[in-house]
Amino acid sequence: MQNLHGHTYKVVFGISGVPDDVGIVVDFADIKKIWKNRIEPYLDHRYLNETLPPMNTTAENMVVWLFEQMEEGLRTSGLGERSAGLRTEFVRLFETPTSYAEARREWMADA
User: What reaction does this enzyme carry out catalytically (predicted)?
Assistant: First the structure.
């Protein structure tokens, strides 16, 4: 068994929707609020095996959890009518600058 170690992950979300009359799909501040309230408390300086649902905390499993959390956050964000058309299209979780796991809407729908 390896010694306990940490990672500095980077996550990229692809969000889609219909632009409003000003040309905005969703304000980045709203995405950040979802991140800060729904996702970051489970990840930042945490022992992931204790804060995430029971799973093997691989990047591949975590990216599925991230996708699900963002989808739920968009649905329940309080953005009113605008939230109805918002969708998570993909999530990439970078473990290093060149290595990442990815979940895409079409793959999640097929699962």
Answer: 7,8-dihydroneopterin 3'-triphosphate + H2O = 6-carboxy-5,6,7,8-tetrahydropterin + triphosphate + acetaldehyde + 2 H(+)
User: How crowded is residue 86: how many other Cβ atoms within 10 Å of its Cβ?
Assistant: 21
Q: Identify the pLDDT of residue 8.
A: 74
User: Is residue 4 a part of any domain in this protein?
Assistant: no
CA distance 111 to 99: 23
Report the C-alpha gap between 11 and 92 in whole angstroms.
6
Is residue 50 a part of any domain in this protein? Answer: yes
Domain with 19 in it: what CATH number? 3.30.479.10
Helix (H, G, I), strand (E, B) or coil at 46: coil
Domains of the chain: total: 1
Q: Average per-residue pLDDT in the chain?
A: 81
Domain assignment present for 2: no
- Please tell me the pTM assigned to this model: 0.81
Answer yes or no: are the C-beta atoms of 95 and 7 closer than 8 Å. yes
User: What pLDDT digit, counting tens, does each position of 38-67 carry?
Assistant: 888 877 655 555 666 666 667 888 898 899
